[in-house]
């Protein structure tokens, strides 16, 4: 149960991406954006170098999670990593992997250790981490692994993209499109939808959330003429969910479920693969949508965008989605605190 006074732990992400500069920009916007206190887990030399590169005048103080809230008022609180980072914007380097992973590990340890209210992550690029031996598809799966290590219980992570007008969940995440039909099972859809329904109710305060379940194939299979998965895998999953009392319906043709009138009929769209969920979420609200991991014993949010290597170090990166992620993390942490106190 997070304490209302605890700061948020922000991991720096890939130092060659835009993470360092959006963290600096978010801190600079703390008053105008009404941001809650956070501290940045990073190599202080990297943050100093990025601020200088961008000509940003920013006070920074190396500190601890406990002292971060008082520091936050006048300086960007940095909790230093043991690993050093190379400042090479736009040029990802597997040598930075140790610091990227240490920042995530420490944010989770701080959160589960009662030193931080929630974990917020700046973007990581997957390929340089894979090249350095990292064996998880992304944060989502790695955070579930860390949760299991800390608690001893298995955690099934669910990716939610939350924007002002649309929430979406991909059932399958970082796998090749050609693998999706093989990976899609009724059990996976049911498990994903259950966690989504539970967390939307308990963490987001949506009583009996309405889950619109997308089909996989064009026109949700057109009665089996355009693929069998919609009738043989997705529909039985929906029937099981309804039998459990979850307000799930579909399978809906994915091309007509994201326009404004259709969106008014549900609280979350459960989608069958990554782009089916993330394209509408990012098309509608690239600067505002937040990536939230459901199903974990702690709160984790992240901006919806990636490392943006093409603009890193150029002063073009917008901090808006990170600001939305910090605010949402605070809101979710506070509602958990209130629920536990009630
Ligand atoms: N949460 C995460 O860790 C996360 C999320 C998405 C992608 N990624 C990773 O990021 C890497 C790059 O992915 P991508 O190129 O597909 O997506 P991207 O989001 O990094 O970039 C897509 C486009 O959006 C622009 N953009 C992104 N963030 C911006 C910002 N804050 N302000 C202004 N413009 C911005 C970029 O310049 C680029 O033109 C990949 O390795 C991917 O795996 C990580
Ligand atoms: N698919 C996510 C997106 O595009 O926003 C992203 O790669 C982040 O995944 P993790 O949070 O698992 O790193």
TrEMBL record:
Binding site for substrate: 139-140, 282, 291, 300
InterPro entries attached to this UniProt entry: PdxA (IPR037510), PdxA_fam (IPR005255)
Keywords: Cobalt, Cytoplasm, Magnesium, Metal-binding, NAD, NADP, Oxidoreductase, Pyridoxine biosynthesis, Zinc
Residues spanning the signal sequence: none
Any one of the GO BP annotations: pyridoxine biosynthetic process
Protein residues bound to a divalent metal cation: 174, 219, 274
UniProt GO MF annotations: 4-hydroxythreonine-4-phosphate dehydrogenase activity; cobalt ion binding; magnesium ion binding; NAD binding; zinc ion binding
Domain of life of the source: Bacteria
Record's subcellular location: Cytoplasm
Catalytic EC class: oxidoreductase
Gene Ontology, cellular component aspect: cytoplasm
Pathway connected to this protein: Cofactor biosynthesis; pyridoxine 5'-phosphate biosynthesis; pyridoxine 5'-phosphate from D-erythrose 4-phosphate: step 4/5
Family: Belongs to the PdxA family.
Function: Catalyzes the NAD(P)-dependent oxidation of 4-(phosphooxy)-L-threonine (HTP) into 2-amino-3-oxo-4-(phosphooxy)butyric acid which spontaneously decarboxylates to form 3-amino-2-oxopropyl phosphate (AHAP).
Subunit structure: Homodimer.
Further remark: The active site is located at the dimer interface.
Name the UniProt record assigns to this protein: 4-hydroxythreonine-4-phosphate dehydrogenase
Organism: Mesorhizobium sanjuanii
